[in-house]
Amino acid sequence: MKIVLVGYMGSGKSTIGKMLAKKLGIAFIDLDEYIEESEDMGIPKIFKTKGEVYFRKKEYEYLGEILNDQKNFVLSTGGGTPCYGENMNAINKATSNVFYLQVTIAALIERLALEKAERPLIANIPDRELPDFIGKHLFERSFFYAKAKHTINSNGKEVGTLVTEIQGLL
Ligand code: S3P
Fold first, then answer.
1. Which helix (H) or strand (E) is 101 found in, with range?
2. Pocket of ligand 1, candidates 8, 32, 130: which has the most ligand atoms within 8 Å of its Cβ, to mutate?
3. Ligand 1 nearest-atom number relative to CA 120
4. Residues 47-101: pLDDT tens digits?
5. Which atom of ligand 1 is nearest to the CA of 59?
6. Model ipTM?
7. Is 14 annotated among the ligand-binding residues?
8. How are the residues of the chain apportioned to helix, strand and coil, as percentages rounded to the nearest 5?
9. Is 119 annotated as a binding residue?
10. In this prediction, what percent of the chain has a pLDDT beyond 70?
11. 80 is in which domain, residue-wise?
12. Which residues bind ATP (predicted)?
């Protein structure tokens, strides 16, 4: 079974994906970690030394590798993965178990303010400008996230509740 989680940075894809994979007894793959291991470099350094275009190219390649080569997994994608090139089509072609974890802007701002450093797209945005940035960015990206077969309203729900909800839709 192939399961793919999409959603904005800080929407809980990795936390939920790990628990879901454990419950289903299948592999958990974090696309960001897969890229970092394959490239032998952290994401912030890839952005800094090679640039975002290089990162997006690699993200596309490794996404395809995982979707084609592996059979049973929960894949947590990066926040931007669905929004570039053919990525979302490739995901939807590989499986119908695609879940968009929808979270309010307020919750994202709260979480991301604490976790900015490891995310190059927001690392240099002053805290006071973060709400505006996230609001606009999420608005642009929602178009792509909405292509997921399932939208999970994740607001105020425990991780365990969300995992059970997703399991019920498989
Ligand atoms: C990105 C999100 C990050 C990572 C990279 C770019 C984005 O993943 O792929 O920093 O474009 O939103 P997370 O969603 O796991 O933070």
1. strand 98-102
2. 32
3. 10
4. 999 999 999 999 999 999 999 999 999 999 999 999 999 999 999 999 999 999 9
5. 9
6. 0.98
7. yes
8. 55, 15, 30
9. yes
10. 100
11. 2-167
12. 10-15, 119
